[in-house]
Design goal:
This protein is an all-beta fold. The chain has strands at residues 11-14, 23-30, 35-38, 43-48, 58-63, 66-67, 71-74, 81-82, 84-89, 92-97, 103-104. The chain has no helices and eleven strands. Strand 10 (92-97) and strand 11 form a beta hairpin.
Length: 105
């Protein structure tokens, strides 16, 4: 299984699809499916039965997973989409933005 260039907590921008241009924080990454949940992106309506947590029930808006290929990391310096360079320093892996040379944490 390949490693992905996006991790939980990264700020990303959507490159294509209905939500093109939207930015958000990665909430969860599904490595096997090569998808990620991004805050405020690809919202879908889902019916929910009444429960103890939500006694009213009804229709709830929630994020759906989006494919990793449609996402790009945001450069911490310029705020624009960037590709990344991966460097290995001993056992540590460092991700560096190609546009500015800044380290992505």
């Amino acid at each position: 299984m390949n490693k992905l260039h996006i991790k939980k907590g990264d700020n990303v921008i959507v490159l294509s699809g209905e939500d093109k241009g939207k930015t958000g924080k990665v909430l969860k990454v599904f490595v096997a499916e090569r998808k990620a949940l991004v805050e405020g992106v690809k919202l879908v309506s889902k019916s929910q039965k009444p429960s103890a947590k939500n006694p009213q029930g009804g229709i709830v808006k929630m994020e759906a997973p989006i494919h990793i290929s449609n996402l790009s990391l945001i450069d911490p310096k310029s705020g624009k989409p960037t590709r990344i360079l991966i460097k290995h320093e001993g056992k540590n892996v460092i991700r560096i933005a190609k546009k500015s040379g800044e380290e992505i944490k």
